[in-house]
Write a structure and sequence with these properties.
Distance between the termini: 64 Å
Strand order of the largest sheet: 4-5-7-6
Strand content: 5-15%
Order of helices and strands: HEHEEHHHHHHHHHHEEHHHHEEHEEHHEE
Helix content: 40-55%
Length: 454
């Protein structure tokens, strides 16, 4: 295809995006071999802490890999600068489209409140930050051996979704003592007595009571174990906190997928329409790629749909901009996440137009058409996103002998546990907690069930 390489169009696309009102940090674009792309897909980052699990699982909250169900391939890491890796096997049209798409992501991640808050707490330089973690863990391997380090990583990575995004990344430990309630002071004598030096005012006997650990159910299990495991060494704690930092960084990717992919898809389509400097054939090919990116994935005459976040998000942003204007859309982009976005802006009319109604969710992620219920549709789309996609498990008590008690909040969670996987995770936790660990949950019949590792 004539017209030069895709790199020739990056600067002009950036200038066009800026003129259209996008505000983004610089992005480092790099075309890499397919084999390197696959390594990033497996490990989640170009350089990351070594662990066997990366070879057998896909870290879905870390990357955007396929654009919808098309063959286009791009990996984006938000930050300042951002990093975008494109496949060398993509053609000119595909990489021009992906470049415009990445600029939409860069605008979103710089201006969305959730992205900003998480990046400010962790780092805007995640690729370099993760490489530092990898070096730190390599040093631990050299000092303490692969087996000991892998034992810690087993536990930390098994709990990587169990963070509390509503609390700061850097938290103080719990107060050591309970605050004693003070009696009401209702006259001058008691006020003068209460103001006396505590040493002269009390009997000399220590009455302070130690606070329970935890003082309330704690769902940030990475933070809790790093701070309260009875015999955890400092290098082990550092690994737990490194995993926790990376989870904080990538949470917004997970929690805004529909918004973010839809915003990037809207802008790549808009920029392509305005980019009169792109050769005609490349433009036509790119528009065909766009159609693949945002098409609904359907079978059996629309009876079963597997929701494509690119298609859903793109359709929602188009409707919002049509009805409310671009400035209103930008305010929504800045303030919302997928929970508020879907509940507030996936309307009945749009859901009908997209054929999303009368559905039930199958185990394989498909949605089968059954009934007509807008709130139920919203919750079906959002259910996998609650609590970072993990069951809600909280630390509730540490016994005198050091036994750690965990509890699955099955009533509000609405999800069951994979019992065999839960047993394995408890074994991982026990090896770093170094005391018995038990988990209370329910079985498939709703009866109480207690799992233990000791």
């Amino acid at each position: 295809m004539s017209g030069g390489s895709w790199q020739d169009y990056v600067k002009r696309l950036e200038e066009l995006a800026t003129s259209e009102g996008l505000r983004f940090h610089p992005v480092d674009f790099e075309a890499v071999p397919d084999s390197f792309m696959m390594e990033i897909a497996v490990y989640g980052l170009p350089v990351r802490m070594p662990h066997w699990s990366f070879g057998v699982r896909y870290i879905y909250q870390l990357i955007q890999r396929h654009m919808g169900h098309s063959r286009l391939f791009e990996v984006v890491f938000p930050g300042n600068p951002g990093h975008a890796y494109l496949s060398e096997s993509n053609g000119l049209a595909e990489n021009v489209l992906v470049t415009a798409h990445v600029l939409g992501h860069a605008d979103f991640s710089r201006n969305n409140l959730l992205f900003r808050r998480c990046q400010e707490q962790v780092s805007e330089h995640i690729v370099e930050h993760a490489a530092s973690h990898a070096r730190q863990i390599q040093q631990a391997i050299e000092l303490y051996g692969m087996h000991r380090v892998e034992t810690v990583l087993d536990a930390a990575l098994a709990l990587e979704q169990h963070i509390d995004i509503d609390l700061p990344l850097r938290r103080e430990r719990y107060p050591e003592y309970l605050e004693e309630p003070k009696p009401p002071v209702d006259d001058d004598f008691r006020r003068r007595f209460a103001a006396l030096d505590p040493v002269s005012a009390d009997t000399g006997t220590e009455t302070r009571r130690r606070a329970p650990v935890p003082p309330h159910p704690e769902r940030d299990l990475l933070w809790f174990i790093a701070n309260y495991a009875p015999e955890m060494e400092s290098w082990e704690r550092d690994i737990f906190l490194a995993v926790r930092e990376e989870s904080f960084y990538f949470y917004p990717v997970f929690a805004t997928q529909i918004m973010n992919e839809g915003w990037a898809s809207y802008w790549h389509a808009r920029l392509l329409r305005e980019a009169d400097f792109i050769p005609q054939q490349a433009y036509v090919d790119a528009i065909k790629c766009h159609s693949d990116v945002v098409r609904p994935i359907a079978a059996d005459q629309q009876i079963a749909l597997s929701i494509n976040p690119y298609h859903l998000g793109f359709s929602m942003w188009e409707k919002i901009i049509e009805d409310q204007g671009l400035e209103a859309a930008r305010r929504i982009m800045e303030l919302d996440d997928d929970f508020s976005f879907v509940r507030n802006y996936l309307t009945r009319d749009l859901a009908e137009e997209l054929g999303l109604f009368r559905f039930s969710v199958r185990g394989n992620g498909q949605i089968k058409v059954l009934e007509h219920d807008l709130p139920a549709l919203h919750e079906s789309l959002l259910a996998p996103k609650y609590n970072f996609g993990a069951p809600t498990v909280r630390a509730t008590h540490v016994r005198v002998d050091g036994t750690l008690e965990l509890e699955h909040d099955h009533e509000t969670d609405g999800r069951g546990l994979d019992i065999e996987r839960s047993r394995k995770v408890l074994e991982y936790i026990q090896r770093v907690w170094r005391r018995p660990v038990l988990l209370r949950t329910v079985d498939q019949n709703g009866s109480g069930l207690e799992l233990t590792a000791s």
